[in-house]
Amino acid sequence: MDPPSRAGPTELPGRAELCTGCRGCGWRFDLDRSARHDGRVTSSTTAEPERPLEPLWRGLLVYRVLALLSAGVVVLVGLPQYRSAVGAAAVLAVMVGWTAVLGYGYLGAGARSGRRGRLAVADVAVTVAVMASTPFVQTPAQLAADAPVMGSIWTPGAVLACALCFGVRGGLAAALVVSGTLLAVQARPETELGDIQLIVLVGLTVGFASSVLRRQAERVRGAVAAEAAALERERLARAVHDGVLQVLGYLRRRGGELGGDAGELGRLAGEQEFALRTLLTTGPAGVDALGRRDLAAALRAFGSERTSVATPAHGVDLPAGAVDELVAVVGAALANVTVHVGPDAPAWVLLEDLGAEVEISVRDSGPGIPAGRLAAAEADGRIGVARSMRGRVRQLGGTITCETGSEGTEWIIRVPRAAA
Amino acid sequence: MDHSGTPGRGVTADEITVMVVDDHPIWREGVARDLAERGIRVVATAADADAAVRIAHATRPRVVLMDLNLGATSGVQAIAGILARQPETRILVLSASGEHADVLEAVKAGATGYLVKSAGAEELLAAVRRTADGYPVFTPGLAGLVLGEYRRLADEPPGPAGASPVLTARETDVLRLVAKGLTARQIGDRLHLSHRTVESHVQNTLRKLQLHNRAQLVRYAIEQGLAGD
């Protein structure tokens, strides 16, 4: 089946918050991905809810600014020693300006247009240019004395940006470019090995982390979209089911009136109608976090054309184990009706919530159980209906009584709430 | 209310006027035809809550057959809307999905009976007749819902609309037996009452619930500044 219609969030009242999130991102996100981002998931505007890399981008910028301050102090303090003080100041000015551009492009309005990738590549280029200016602004003495290259600790920022944008490969590539530049401008490359190792390490680890985070976010996004789709399907199913119920019910009525073969068809339609209605109104009675289950919903599942189940409209929550036992007891009583009164014999189940206890009545309108038969069955050592029912109810600390007569048989089961 | 004259006046038992409210045309027409064939005058049909309220006001049927699931609108709204203008109208709920909570809300809003849609034409006819005569149409399931609702209200702290309604011991007995599938006659035999008395007990249980509901709504409306001028 196609993905269900991308209806507006208003169609799912109560879930609007979720839907605004997932509809706003999930679907549009998919479209964007195929049309614009070429399979690459970038932290673009359309992927609003889970942008796991945002904190890293902010962290990157903080690093850039702090590194800029540090590098700036180094340059300004040592300004008279430079071969070209003007050149050094100009390079510093470029760094300041470029950091501002990055702030805008990585975090500000520029980030919204999804241009971080291109900006990160440009970042590497600018960084390389800054480093390459070293031989022109520094004196050979400075170079020989292992003074930091232009940009110094500001330069690994470009590696971080590429790692965030393009993952491991991007981080590694940028690290190699920056390292290569470092080697090229340094007179004594062997002293830079430690720095180079650090740069490559940073590119690899940050790149790896960003890949993992991105994959996880994608998975979360997929799950959210799937949930929205499931909700939508559920809503559509309700509408379809209602229509099916209407038609089945109508078939049953008309069939009954026409009689003959049509009557048989009508009867079959009626059975299906009841089964579907029971399924829809009952659903799987779930166990809540406290291990409790709604006894009313569980008993309603017994409803059929011949069995009426009357319960309160609100839930009657009991421990799930007790609900299972009580359902088994009621099932046994109803099976007994089928065996002893007839397969089409009507039966009535009533569940009452009496506060401190619950009472279940299972009644039929059959000829009644002959006096002494239940006791006789037990005395014979047969595990009779009565015995298994009694055993289960007693385990729950409750009582079970049987009233039988010419008007029918009624089992009354009472179970205390606290003990159950 | 504002208009004098009840629609029931001068109409004999054989001339019950009915409006059918259902969003499925197949049902609207089918039910209308079944009733017409059996001598019931179907004066109107409607497909949603707003139309139901408007048309009921114009045609004044004695009985409204109400589906609860009216597309985007709800049958419960329609019931409240119709009874607000014509309290003498009788509402019989005819529901396909048997959503228990919806049925209870419909009864609290003033419906006096409930029937599953797949009920046979004769069963429907009998229910319409009973409703027109002012008797409630109870299923055992509905009795269970009403019993449960009284129990729930008893557990609630008394609200601003006054103390919660309480069932008398007799009414509780009667409702229980209805929920266990006994007919009014069988209940009368068991409790040594006439079946008319049994009927009136059943009716009272509904009326008290409806009055309480209405009092709560009025109180709410006053609090919200919606009522009075």
How would you characterize the overall build of this protein?
The complex is a heterodimer of chains A (420) and B (229). Chain A is of the alpha+beta class. Chain A contains 14 helices and seven strands. Chain A has two domains: 9-227, no CATH class; 288-416, Histidine kinase-like ATPase, C-terminal domain (Heat Shock Protein 90, 2-Layer Sandwich). In chain A, a hairpin with a 2-residue loop joins β6 and β7. The longest helix of chain A has 66 residues, at 193-258. Mean pLDDT of chain A is 78; it is low at 1-49. Chain B is globular. With 229 residues, chain B is α/β, with parallel strands linked by helices. Classes of the chains: A alpha+beta (420), B alpha/beta (229). Chain A binds chain B through residues 241-243, 245-250, 252-254, 256-257, 270, 273-274, 277, 280-281, 300, 308-314, 346-348, 350-355, 361, 363, 365, 407, 410, and chain B through 24, 26-27, 30, 34, 69, 96-101, 103-104, 116-121, 139-145, 147-149, 151-152, 155, 176, 179-181, 186.
